[in-house]
Amino acid sequence: MTQTEGIRTPASWVVVGLDNGGTTDNATVLDATGSFLVDQLVEIPSRVLDGPELAVEALADSFENIIRITNTPLTLVKAIGLDTPGPASATGVISSKGATNFSAVSWHGFDIRAALERRLGLPVVYNNDANAAALYAHHRYFGPDQALQKSSVAGIVGTGFGGGVVEGGRVIKGAAGMAGELGHVQIPLQDVLEEGQPAPRCNCGFFGDVESFASLTGIKNNLLPYWLTRFPGHPLAAEPIERAAKLLRGYGEKEDPLALAVFGQQAKAIGKLFTIAANFTDPDVYFIGGGVVEAEPSFRQWFLNTVREHTQLRHEQLAVASFELVPDRDMAGARGAAVAAFDAVVANVVAQTPGVNAV
Questions:
Q1: By its UniProt entry, which InterPro entries does this protein fall under (predicted)?
Q2: For residue 246, which of 295, 181, 197 has the smallest C-alpha distance?
Q3: Which of 6, 106, 159, 340 has the most Cβ atoms closer than 10 angstroms to its Cβ?
Q4: Distance (Å, rounded) from C-alpha 210 to C-alpha 93?
Q5: How far apart are CA 356 and CA 333, in angstroms?
Q6: pTM, 2 dp
């Protein structure tokens, strides 16, 4: 599919969504009717490894590219939604300790939202990437009439484990912007660990949090080294552990017993997390997104079913709650960023306050 296929021009005002990643920036456009103008990824290199100045310029290029190919006049753009990987503050300031995608010292404490706003001269609404995907899943699932009346929790499995809590159609941010960091919730390990299996350690220093299980990093550091001892002679034992961790999903799609053991343990851990959520926020929907959503349909449905089986709900909750996959896969981040900007425009926030952070 080419970039111009499936694209229509806007009839009135729009917002642009920009999803910043470690290798690419993806962009989309959402118009005043709530319709997306593109139905596929529109990506360019993100240049985050080249430092803030060139990465912000790449985001500006991504913006200019998407309005060009959608034939959108610049005067119609009311706001830009931006998401990046975390950790970052609610206002788009990259952690002073850096992050996986922002490891260079020049990124530490860098205000990427404000920098992009200065570069483009338009209000920028910020969310982290997991929050953006959670927001899009919520709005897509419930639709405009119900989204503001419902709640959801999303777990996003990637290099780490991100998440988002949406209440009444809005992402819960918290006082320091750290709400929804579901990967660092420590879970009960009963019925998750095998007998004799050591408690997994997260890069954050916690033992037994969700990310120590349900992430690519958790597979590489904790789960796969253990399970390879239980499956001697497995082909992945001959691979470097980092490569083996990346190959594991392909084995899971083929129902390989070792891979299913690893991913089953991840699903159990997420089930424990969702059990906590059931007693804390009692959401209408539990979403799963990230790498497992990119897998073959039968595998991702098996994973979702396993999460559901290990989430302990009361009878009243079982009657009303559902478990769903985050829709539209890699497009969810940019679309969620656009939804946040759209909501800010509708609420007349960005028109009055350039530099708004998020809705």
A1: ATPase_NBD (IPR043129), ROK (IPR000600), ROK_cs (IPR049874)
A2: 295
A3: 340
A4: 25
A5: 19
A6: 0.89
Of 63, 310, 314, the residue nearest 210 (C-alpha): 310
- Give the side-chain half-sphere CA count within 13 A for 177: 17
Equal fold, 14-122+331-346 vs 145-327: yes
Report the alpha-carbon distance of residue 180 to residue 98 in Å, rounded: 19
Q: Which of 165, 177, 110 is nearest to 358 (CA)?
A: 177
Tokens of 144: 């405009």
Superfamily of the domain at 14-122+331-346: ATPase, nucleotide binding domain (3.30.420.40)
Domain range list for the chain: 14-122+331-346, 145-327
The structure tokens listed for 209 are 């949090």
Residue 98 Ramachandran class (φ > 0 left, ψ -120 to 50 alpha, else beta): left
Six-digit token pair at 12?
């009135």
User: Residue 26: which of 85, 100, 88, 79 has the closest Cα?
Assistant: 85
Q: What are the pLDDT tens digits along the chain (359 aa)? A: 344 555 666 768 999 999 998 889 999 999 999 999 999 999 999 999 999 999 999 999 999 999 999 999 999 999 999 999 878 888 899 988 766 678 789 999 999 999 999 999 999 999 999 999 999 999 999 998 899 999 999 999 988 898 999 999 999 988 877 788 899 999 999 999 999 999 999 988 899 999 999 999 999 999 999 999 999 999 999 999 999 999 999 999 999 999 999 999 999 999 999 999 999 999 999 999 988 888 899 999 999 999 999 999 999 999 999 999 998 888 999 999 999 999 999 987 555 444 555 44
CATH of 145-327, picked from 3.40.50.720, 3.30.390.30, 3.90.1030.10, 3.30.420.40, is 3.30.420.40
Supply angle C-alpha 182, 188, 189, rounded to 5.
110
Provide the 10 A C-beta neighbour count for residue 189. 16
Give the integer Cα–Cα distance in Å for 322 and 313: 11
Shortest CA distance to 22 belongs to which of 89, 127, 88, 102? Answer: 102
